[in-house]
Known about the structure:
Layout: E1 9-15, H1 21-34, H2 49-59, E2 65-70, E3 85-89, H3 90-93, H4 104-109, E4 120-123, E5 128-130, E6 140-141, E7 144-147, H5 158-173, H6 176-182, H7 184-187, H8 194-202, E8 219-222, H9 223-232, H10 234-241, H11 254-262, E9 267-268, E10 274-278, H12 284-292, E11 298-302, H13 310-324
Parallel strand pairs: 1-2, 1-4, 2-3, 7-9, 10-11
Antiparallel strand pairs: 4-8, 5-11, 6-7
Helix pairs in contact: 5-11, 12-13
Amino acid sequence: MKKYDDAPIDFVIPWVDGEDPAWRRQFLAVRRAEGADASEIRFRDWRNLRYWFRGVERLAPRVRRIHFITWGHLPAWLNTSNPRLHVVDHADYIPSAYLPTFNSNTIELNIARIEGLAERFVLFNDDTFLLRPVRPGDFFRRGLPCDMARLSVVQPSSVGHIVYNDLELINAAHRKGAVLRRWPGKWFSPRYGVVNLLKSLTLVPWSTFPGILDTHMPQPYLRSRFERAWRMWGGELDASCRHPFRTLQDLSHWLVRYDVLCRGEFAPRSMRDTGLVTLDDDGIDAVCDAVRTQRYRMICMNDSTDISDFDRMSRRLCEAFDAVFPEKSSYER
Length: 333
């Protein structure tokens, strides 16, 4: 019988090049036909993807395979002959009824359909990077995804509205009081730290889940839990995936995560070694410093509209990454 830590782990990363002419033609045609208000900032390529691959190769050597999801375009430097790289076009796994799609929720909710995807995988966004070595135990323990279950209050926003949609289904399926009584050691683990525990405790009196903290870090999942979610909420997920652009009626992959947390199917993990930062004019110095000093094991870099010179900021960020990962990976030509 295999030990849990011997089971393979795959990484999954969706990517888009918002400057690709063919992609832009389809994007603009569908946006016009749908009358959608889709901000192009969501599709901006920071030109630092090669450093994601360099980080994975150096810092996560035990990853079995990388599933690289793309609309159809590829970085010119990508070595597609690397045996550990699986290039996945949207049409390879997303049902045709949902295509074309420019909706990250649709792209992520259908991930379990990827051919050859391991049962254990970690979902990255293209703004999440490794900066220090990681082990299988950072993502999975005893076959369960490592995560932090912390109660929170959802902030009003377009993304927050989608989270409300997820929570509506979660609260219909799980009673908050029963979940906390059944899994107190997981929802109130000392691994989370005093501040997080106090924040959860202040929300215990609520009769329903007011929110569950989303850390925006690389997210470990079991493929079978996505399949279960589609069995439970197939109609709702189908309706969400038919939106070619993100809408306030969408569901997200957080629905799967929340269901896993409510069932206690996770191992508590501290998030002290992770960092969530924003790329803007005021914060770029601190972000570059965090990268160069490898302050965090994992970092998420949120894009923003407060950028006066995108090209200059992109170059600065790439220079910071190059100081840490100067050598090409086997994923580069």
